[in-house]
Amino acid sequence: MKYIIKIITLSLISISLSANAIPMAIKHGTTLYDPAKAWSGYILFAGRDAKTYLIDMMGNEINRWLYHAFPAWPIAGENSAKILVELATIDNHGVDYQPFTGMLNVSIGEVNWQGKVVWQYGSKIDPAHQHHEIQRLPDGNTLILRAKVKRIGGWEHDIIDNYVDIISPEGNSVWRWSVADNFDKLGFDSQQQKIMKDSKIVNLFHINTATPLGKNKWYDSGDKRFAPDNILINSRNGNLAVIICRETGEIVWRLGSNFPSVNYQGKIPRPNNRCA
Predict the structure, then answer these.
(1) Which of 168, 198, 243, 256 has a Cα-to-Cα distance from 225 of 20 to 30 A?
(2) Residue 151 carries which DSSP code?
(3) Cα-flanking dihedrals φ and ψ of residue 198, to 5°?
């Protein structure tokens, strides 16, 4: 009887484990593609295997580069076939220096179709510390979002500052804007500033985006705040987005960090692709 009970128990455990196990056969390649609705083209992305891939809409590999990227950026131009990638990193120096902060990124560069490095920026002596954003601009300069350990005036601990840096082909900074240097202009009230100061959080701002606005209807309608060269950035941790004037360095538009209170009645609405 004990033997039968043991067999039944083991069988139930086996069924339970099987129900929660990852399927042995996982479908690879394109799993959904509706040409009538999808924007057809090519997809450039950095994989978790420290390589960068170019695939078509059917999931076929067109090319791969033996470099990671955060993110990869295609360089526009006739027959260019070049991309911007991450070239070298350093070992982790602590919990606050995770890869997503940019503090481990030593150098970035431009590689051709065959993977040859044709332009490089950053070194172990002067690291690039790039993260989340890198773009080759129409004028040939390269916009990168960078990180740097810094201390805001009056604070007692260092933070990882995020700043936008536009680099010339020769490696010179032609325009730079620091979040920490403009902390008092971000819209945080005195109580919020005190909370942030006392939090001792190192990755305080965590900027995810830094991009020129490009051509838009608001500028065409006469609103100079939305000049195509002005830079839009957003702070995930700060819960805000701002537009920075390239000419003056001033913040000309801001969303957040304070929003009106919302009192939902009943079920809280969620995006369509998420479960309630």
Answers:
(1) 168
(2) -
(3) -80, -10
